[in-house]
Recover the amino acids of this structure.
């Protein structure tokens, strides 16, 4: 009942949010689950460094995030505080990673909402969905789904995409015109192709000591893998359900290599890696993008991380597709899977371990560049942040 009452109040407030005068120079930023991460994080940092004539603030419902951003010397407010609410209500531009609820949906009326999104790829999303749990919200319009997720139906004024190949899909998914899509690439990806010294400087300035400590640990190993699986509704304990961790650890130990396990925020974290000398479980809140330039092999599946990772040359990819048939039933692809991925494949834990034992080859450069061009065009070579922020220029 409390949740229902909260949403009823939200619906009452929303129309009044259109009445507030909004300052063109005032920009609000936020991210899902109140975190400080993803494209909005990198755009916010860039804006603070390059846009001295703007008023910038990070808005979050998480007090730890607010403290973290303030610790960097930047303005941040709790979304439920008076200052936070007033700032959101008077900001002309909103930048977020998923939905207006990243800041606060009921205060978004009248704001220019710029959705930075959080991944290009193949999977059907939003109103492109045809099956699975999300179909109840976007296709069947179940009352409960619609009532508790009004942010899903608030169309963005602008949507960040990457290339025409992706724009056509995203425009349909968010029910907007292709002309509203900004093919500027992702702010978070600039760090992937930066010089190592620049990445290290970024880590020192903006990341917690735990990230620096993990990076120092890389030096002890001959090769570093990272496993980043996509979210599955039916597999919340994915690392212990589909990996023989002890056997995998033995293979890594024999070669002096390290494996990082990066869980989704919804994954149940267990102590399964305890005693595994060559496997580390990363906190789900860790920003891995500053670490990826120093990782040799990405292990993933249907996740959009693949398309970010291949922006770097000289890397290897291992696709772990143990549940391909079942996953396709749950989440349809907008484009054919086989034609739009790259990397060696494994279909069970034994095949994955065997691939590690023999060594995963570096991606063929011509094939990598062809896929990069398809998914990113030239957007990854420009100043993504600068181009996005020109929207707010006086």
């Amino acid at each position: 009942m409390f949740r229902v009452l909260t949403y009823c109040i939200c619906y009452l407030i929303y129309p009044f949010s259109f009445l507030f005068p909004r300052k063109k120079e005032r920009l609000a930023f936020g991210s899902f689950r109140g975190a400080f991460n993803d494209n909005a994080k990198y755009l916010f940092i860039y804006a603070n460094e390059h846009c001295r004539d703007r008023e910038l603030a990070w808005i979050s419902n998480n007090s730890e995030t607010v403290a973290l951003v303030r610790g960097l010397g930047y303005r941040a407010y709790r979304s439920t505080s008076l200052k936070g609410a007033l700032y959101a209500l008077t900001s002309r531009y909103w930048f977020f990673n998923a939905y207006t609820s990243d800041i606060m949906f009921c205060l978004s009326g009248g704001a220019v909402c710029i959705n930075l999104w959080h991944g290009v790829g193949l999977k059907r999303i939003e109103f492109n969905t045809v099956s699975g749990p999300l179909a109840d919200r976007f296709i069947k319009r179940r009352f409960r789904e619609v009532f508790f997720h009004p942010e899903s139906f608030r169309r963005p004024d602008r949507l960040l995409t990457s290339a025409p190949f992706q724009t056509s899909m995203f425009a349909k998914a968010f029910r907007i015109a292709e002309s509203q899509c900004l093919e500027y690439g992702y702010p978070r990806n600039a760090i992937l192709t930066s010089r190592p010294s620049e990445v290290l400087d970024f880590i020192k300035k903006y990341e917690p000591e735990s990230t620096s400590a993990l990076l120092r640990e890389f030096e002890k190993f001959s090769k570093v893998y990272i496993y980043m699986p996509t979210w599955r509704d039916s597999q919340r304990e994915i690392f212990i359900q589909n990996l023989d961790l002890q056997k995998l650890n033995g293979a890594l130990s024999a070669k002096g290599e390290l494996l990082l396990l990066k869980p989704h925020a919804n994954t149940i974290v267990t102590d399964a890696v305890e005693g595994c000398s060559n496997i580390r479980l990363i906190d789900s809140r860790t920003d891995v993008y500053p670490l990826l330039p120093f990782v040799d092999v990405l292990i993933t599946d249907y996740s959009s991380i693949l398309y970010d990772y291949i922006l770097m040359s000289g890397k290897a990819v291992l696709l772990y597709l143990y549940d391909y048939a079942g996953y396709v039933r749950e989440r349809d692809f907008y484009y054919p899977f086989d034609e739009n991925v790259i990397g060696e494949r494994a279909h069970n834990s034994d095949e994955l371990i065997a691939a590690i034992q023999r060594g995963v080859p570096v991606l063929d450069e011509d094939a990598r560049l062809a896929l990069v061009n398809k998914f990113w065009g030239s957007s990854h070579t420009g100043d993504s942040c600068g181009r996005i922020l020109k929207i707010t220029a006086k």
Q: What stands out?
A: The longest strand covers residues 23-30. The chain has a mean pLDDT of 92. The two ends are 45 Å apart (CA to CA). The longest helix spans residues 38-50.
